Amino acid sequence: MIEENVKQILNEVPAAATVVAATKGRSVDQIREAIQAGITIVGESYVQEAQEKYLVIKSEVKWHFIGHLQKNKVKKAVKMFDMIQSLDSLELAELIDKECGKLNKVMPVLIEVNCAREPQKGGILPEAVKTFIAEALSFSHIRLGGLMTMGPLVEDEEILRPYFRETKRLFNVVKERYQDELLEWKYLSMGMSASYRCAIEEGANMIRLGEVIFGERT
Ligand SMILES: *Cc1c(COP(=O)(O)O)cnc(C)c1O
Description:
Layout: H1 2-12, E1 18-22, H2 28-36, E2 41-44, H3 47-57, E3 62-65, H4 74-80, E4 83-87, H5 90-103, E5 107-113, H6 129-136, E6 142-149, H7 157-177, E7 187-190, H8 196-201, E8 206-209, H9 211-214
Parallel strand pairs: 1-2, 1-8, 2-3, 3-4, 4-5, 5-6, 6-7
């Protein structure tokens, strides 16, 4: 089942779009099945949960953090993850920078954009992203690699299309504006199970899929 789903999706999406398997709540066995079918990146939403799986699966796959990163979990997170897709505050950037400095490593990060300006959601507002980058550029142990966005949780992907389109526009504006500083600015992570087709049409090159790979979450 998982294997068939992965194969079908990898077959369907353009090669330029990287599939991240969103694995919150999924077991080591389920994740391994996805890896066997061709998944190369998993996205975890909770540090503690990720760590338990990481201890078993380790470098069979790349580990991306896609949830809200609590400050007291940064130290653990930077040891384990290959990318943090959900950078949502300068304070967090500073902490990641500090902890990575201790380990002598540079963490690739994506800036999480609150594309629909939802008050209850985290993320940087679209209009604040450029200022955020100007400040985050001072951290030498993080590498700004692009944008990630979620958007409202809706069934109809057409509702998300304008937000995806705006986020792609913002991605390009930043690329242009910071072309000398942001040499690794290349990832636009948007689209989930209900919206990945639309997200790809609007320029996503990384999609995060849970239910279409593993089945409904219970
Ligand atoms: C769970 C999750 C996904 C995947 O959602 P599905 O609807 O299961 O595809 C993608 N991104 C984030 C940040 C998530 O937490």
